[in-house]
Please model this.
Amino acid sequence: MSKEFTTISIPTALFKKIEETIRGTEVSSVASYVAKVVGEALLKAEAEPEVFNKEEEEKVKDRLKALGYID
Amino acid sequence: MDRKFLVIGLDSAPSEIVIDRRSEFPVLSRLIEGGLHGKMRSSDPPITIPAWMVMTTGKDPGRLGLYGFRHRTGYSYDKMWIATSQAFKERAIWDVVGDHGGRSCLVSIPPSYPPRRVPGELISCFITPDQDKEYTYPKELRAEIEAKFGPYRFDVVFRTEDRDEILKEIHAMTAKRFDVIEYLMETRPWNFFMFVEIGVDRIQHAFWKYMDKAHHLYEPGNKYETAIVDYYKYLDGRIGELLKRAGDDTAVLVVSDHGAKRMKGAFCINEWLIREGDLVLKEKPQRGASIEKTPVDWRRTKVWGWGGYYARLFFNVEGREPQGIIKPEDYEKEREAMIERLLAIRGPNGEAWATRIIKPNEYFADVRGDYPDLMVYFDDLFWRSAGTLGWGTLYLAENDTGPDDAVHAQEGMYILYDPRKKESRRVDIDILDVAPTVLASMGLPVPPDMRGKVAGSGLNT
Model:
């Protein structure tokens, strides 16, 4: 069993900077912003060559929908 | 390695057909009369992906980090990825066989596109996007197969109302697959041979209502009443031919990844969430609109869902989702309240449902990847989950994505025939038991991180 959330410390100055950055945007909190940005950075770092190009992905998705696996 | 092993994978085959109706299938019947057999409890979720990989790696979906065909990319609202062979990092039976100098022949085990490098031969599965992609290992195998048999058939065009056509297509696909398998069996050296026939799943989805008298759309005396059983009889004959080629001393496992049963209908999970006030859209959706293409008011949405044979629910949490609104400290409370509401859902006529709900982060000992907040099996999977919108009702008599008659059942089946033992016994097993059982039977060591037991070892009788 793993807990869904945990806490870390970040510098207050960075926290304030993020607060300013997200003011007036759709991002709901500093934590959401950090989760999004770090998540994207990790994805980029781990990225493997794409298996499907856009057209192939749509084709496979449509097939999986027709087969009842998704949607 | 002291012996050869053949795995005959029948996607979605239930014990209610293969074992309970064995008298109609002489070859399978002979294996049952001389082997261990019974139900095999599938993974959670009991879906083709990840189930075949759970079976061949001996690791559960949490450890594999695979919960279906598609996953959210991180915590984004609109990005998703499809599980391919590259999503499976764990070692499988064929890797252990290869470590000991053995060779494997692997045909259409989902997911095997793009084709992975194996000690032996491989043909990919139905997630191959196109016939003109590389779909074999080694890649020269493709030209050899096509020169002899024409283009390989991965799947059939499904959900067409023309049942005669689909029946013909399924038989043609299966016939070709068995032709190719026989050819590989005769021309390649192998210690481990495994294939998955997806036609079993397809014929059951397309024809279940014609066979099952309990199905709400069953019509007595219809012309397709025996279509499914006739197909199994055909398979039985082809399996008999394979066994002749496999050799007398070869151990054989006939196994499915999950079972099948009649579909009662589809429950519109997102429609329900809208009515409950958990999901707020920015505009009225078109009939049958996909949630991923519908503008959602995320600042007012707490929960949304995905459909398929089971529902995946995602919570919109502050600090996790970009526009999350559930406070992390309220997450467990909200999740508990949602579970209570989901369990209270009844059928269209007020009938009680046996809904099962899983919290992935608690259920799996090791939970990885992009898992949902809740996994929901409406009425023990009898009701599939429709994620699409704009239906104006919570209950659909048919699948939202096209004609369909069957859903998945948690229990699949297996027959383990060992010609050196010839012991007929009914023993139910778990899907995690398969990999250790195969390896032990081949005289190979079972990796310590496979949690399953060796079937028939006395531990699970």
Q: What stands out?
A: The CA atoms of residues 310 and 377 of chain B lie 5 Å apart. The mean pLDDT of chain B is 95. Residues 265-403 of chain B form one domain.
